[in-house]
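USER: For my understanding, would you kindly supply a protein sequence with its structure tokens?

ASSISTANT:
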Amino acid sequence: MEFYNLIDKIVSDNKAHSKWLNTLSFMENAGARKISACEHPTKVNLIQLKHACEEHRHAYYLKKQIGKINAEWCKTYESNELLAPIATRQYLHALDVKACKYLHAHFDLTKEELKYAAYLFVTYAIEVRADELYPVYQEVLTKTNSKVMVKSIILEEEGHLEEMINQLDEFSENWKPHAEKIIEIEKDLHIDWVNAITEEVMKPDYA
């Protein structure tokens, strides 16, 4: 199923849509926590703080949007309130682990430097994905005249991607081939995640 058609099906079902918003909120929150976990004990730059702050805000914003559907739904991140909870919880963690292994093999970095490099490359890959995912979601929301909106997130994610490119330029002049490898890793994990969501929402008895 094409991603647009999957989102279209999700948005057409209020319960699935609420879980989708909650799933995105969970992932934004997980991303923010990973950014903070990658911080150096003392050498934390303004951009890194900004990203963590904005990802947390996205998590909050998406969670608040659920209230436009049903304020009593998806109040936590319990598994029964997420779409494809196992794949969702594994997605970012698996990307982080695989990216660290790749970077460790291709760069001579200390433990703290590896954490920062992982922040740069993983966040870059996620921002590339966000620049594809959120516009498709917003297109479906607009088509269906939904009260839910993600336009503000789209604008901020575009800014994040530009900031990550600037930081990667400072990290290494030869960062692009390595970023492509991390993107390939992310693409495989994204496919697994989308397939898991598709399998769940396509069940005849899904509710």
In short: The CA atoms of residues 198 and 204 lie 12 Å apart. The two ends are 19 Å apart (CA to CA). Residues 111-143 form the longest helix (33 residues).
